[in-house]
Amino acid sequence: MIWRGLGSFVLLTALTLGGGDSVYGTDAPAQVLRVGLDMVAASADPHRLYSVDSRNLAFHIFEPLILPDDGLGIVPWLATGWEMEGERTWVVRLRPDVRFHDGKLLSPHDVAFTFCRLDSMGNGPLAGLIAGVEQAVARDAHTLVITTRGTMPLLPHVLTLLPIIPAPDGWKGTYQPRGCAGTADGLAALSEQRFADGKVPGTGPYRLASFRSGSSADLVRTDTYWRARPHWDRVQQVILGSGVARARALVSGEVDIINQVVPESLDFLSTRPDIKVVDSKPLRILMLTVNLAGPLADVNIRRALAIAIDRAALSKRIAPGSAEPADQMAPPGIPGYTPAASIPFDQAEARRLLAQAGVQEGLRLRLITIEPFARVAEGVARYLLAIGVQLDIRYASVGDALPLLRDRDYDLFLGSRVPFTGEMGYSNWELLHTPQPEIKAGSQNDSGYSNPELDQILSQAMVEADASRRADLLQQVAVIASRDLPFIPLLRTTRRWAMHADLRFDGRVDGNTLATLITPASASTQ
């Protein structure tokens, strides 16, 4: 059974701007970039959600101290540099010339307040980013000193995921876990509606002009940006949940660029001289989150599901040329990957495990996912049906899917993940560690999984400075996770974009579709 009632789609005619003509020339009255996305952010609050659609909006308005490059490396951004002083202290130097949209100069106090804001949100989706931070305090007008509980060698990578917001006027306090003095009023003022109304200034090249949750966002360029002005005066993001609808909108000229090009559209788009298609590296993993409180509490049933899926065949059938099998959470070459954690394909053994668990033919499970993952969900359903397990698939909008995930109102949840820090430590900390808000652990552990042995090994890995030893610890975590299976890895996929041929954009593994990186082909990116 497949439910599609929750998907939210807009008419293509709603995309048309000025008759649908693309506007690229420098002599045009306004440079408008129209972006057709599989998902538009459900919230304009940059700290509320942890997803590609959230970043696609947030990083136009707000910026991190350090920027990720497309090779999972890092480059200075709001920060000009950083270094360690001893084993537990990082010194971060800020640019002296950066201003928020309201004219206020960026200071270390804004970074400290941003940490305070994350701390005030409890075990929210970004809480793990500051899990090991003990204190953040200004040394001078342009220097921030971050003290950590243990060694945090990857702190600069972690900071790439944290959008900075301004501190209240006059606040010059210190970040400390479980409460920052003098922040109550400033934090209370940061309502979700204020972000949606564009009233919280950032340092980014755009301001939010209008926002409809999960539907559309309209961004207007700010002329006070600290870097060179981006090409586009205005950026419009609109949801087109169907891959075919996105392709049609691109070809008809109703949008200028689309993300998540689906296999059904690829051949058609690739043959058109007026369309360009680009891919990222295949680092995104599609996986099933397992609700351990329901019928899948028995690890034998979870293992039966995991080994019933032929990942190699699924990747070729669902996304030929843009997917590869994923038999564990870490991709090869990433610290944390080990052949010892691999999951085989064996349907005969899967049936034996189900029988051993006392499962009768006809077990029904509820799978929640979003429309862009429909082909994968339906492919998984076919493999599980072969061992007598039937999936009732429910397609939800992002805004509806996340509460279902957090409330554990599912048996299986199909989603995706990218190891943004270049290894598996922080992903594991958020996904696998027992939820412990006091140490910002397990902030995205929505399966109900808890294993003290894994927690202990992972805690050691998070403060291990020696890269080889850290990788060994992360491999141990991978083996335990593949044994317990709170998540079932499926595929590693590229991300794919299509655009008018007179545009230039290089695909990114993080999936971000940022207007600052999209230019006329005759120009260079900034």
UniProtKB/TrEMBL annotation:
<keyword id="KW-0732">Signal</keyword>
<feature type="domain" description="Solute-binding protein family 5">
    <location>
        <begin position="74"/>
        <end position="434"/>
    </location>
</feature>
<dbReference type="InterPro" id="IPR000914">
    <property type="entry name" value="SBP_5_dom"/>
</dbReference>
<dbReference type="GO" id="GO:0015833">
    <property type="term" value="P:peptide transport"/>
</dbReference>
<dbReference type="GO" id="GO:0043190">
    <property type="term" value="C:ATP-binding cassette (ABC) transporter complex"/>
</dbReference>
<dbReference type="GO" id="GO:0030288">
    <property type="term" value="C:outer membrane-bounded periplasmic space"/>
</dbReference>
<comment type="similarity">
    <text>Belongs to the bacterial solute-binding protein 5 family.</text>
</comment>
<dbReference type="InterPro" id="IPR039424">
    <property type="entry name" value="SBP_5"/>
</dbReference>
<dbReference type="InterPro" id="IPR030678">
    <property type="entry name" value="Peptide/Ni-bd"/>
</dbReference>
<dbReference type="Pfam" id="PF00496">
    <property type="entry name" value="SBP_bac_5"/>
</dbReference>
<dbReference type="GO" id="GO:1904680">
    <property type="term" value="F:peptide transmembrane transporter activity"/>
</dbReference>
<protein>
    <recommendedName>
        <fullName>Solute-binding protein family 5 domain-containing protein</fullName>
    </recommendedName>
</protein>
<keyword id="KW-0813">Transport</keyword>
